[in-house]
Design brief:
Layout: H1 10-36, E1 42-49, E2 52-59, H2 62-83
Length: 88
């Protein structure tokens, strides 16, 4: 039986932690900006169900938010393709 007392989490866990930290920083920034007043809200969402993308946006800045969401999805798909390509 192997000794599992020392296991390094590695890159996947680090990326998850960094993602949660960035979400928290963004949430705090939104709260602080909303307390100042005069804030424009907008949002976008891209959800893939199989190969079919569903794009949703709302608010005055929704076009920008949807564009950024689509660009992030494209970047993620490129990274996934590069990461999972067969190595010979």
């Amino acid at each position: 039986m192997s000794d599992m007392s020392y296991v390094t989490p590695g890159w996947p866990m680090l990326l998850i932690v960094v993602g949660f930290i960035l979400i928290f920083i963004g949430f705090v920034a939104l709260v602080l900006m909303s307390l100042k007043g005069n804030v424009e809200w907008g949002g976008g969402l891209v959800v893939f169900i199989g190969p079919i993308p569903i794009v949703v946006g709302g608010g005055r800045l929704s076009k920008f938010a949807v564009l950024m969401a689509v660009l992030l999805v494209i970047a993620m798909l490129i990274a996934l393709a590069l990461w999972t390509k067969p190595r010979f």
